[in-house]
Amino acid sequence: MTQDEIDALAEDLGVFARRLHNERVGPHLGATAVHALGHLDRHGPMTAKSLARLERVTPQSIAKTVATLEAGGLVSRRSDPSDGRAHLIDLTDAGASALHNDRRVRNRWFTEAVHAECTDAERDLLLIAGRILRRVGNSNNPPP
After folding, report:
1. Residue 41 lies in a domain
2. In the predicted model, what is the mean pLDDT of residues 65-86?
3. Total domain count for the chain?
4. Which of 8, 13, 107, 108 shows its CA 20 to 30 Å from the CA of 22?
């Protein structure tokens, strides 16, 4: 890909990500907060260190996110039985409900938009592109 194509793709992804983010309901949590809730939903309780590693943010950054989520009643903390110095962060019922409602609303918009704007072949390509983008996003390759 040329640099111009990369620039255009990055801009296209940014436009889509902003629109998807704007489809959220309720209190507008930052992307890291929503992603943290998603990790806890998928993987269960974990330490802040593990959550920071999954989010690729600093421990200080995830500490602020967790504090905000805890203050909102969306997560709880308890001592880690395997490490007395650490705490496990867990999704509360309110956090799971908020996350699932957020997903439902965004997915409704996304479904309607894809069906209105895309052909069957384009929808198939979006599924493939999504898998590729996840793989690239999870890559451990250092930046050039």
Report:
1. yes
2. 92
3. 1
4. 8
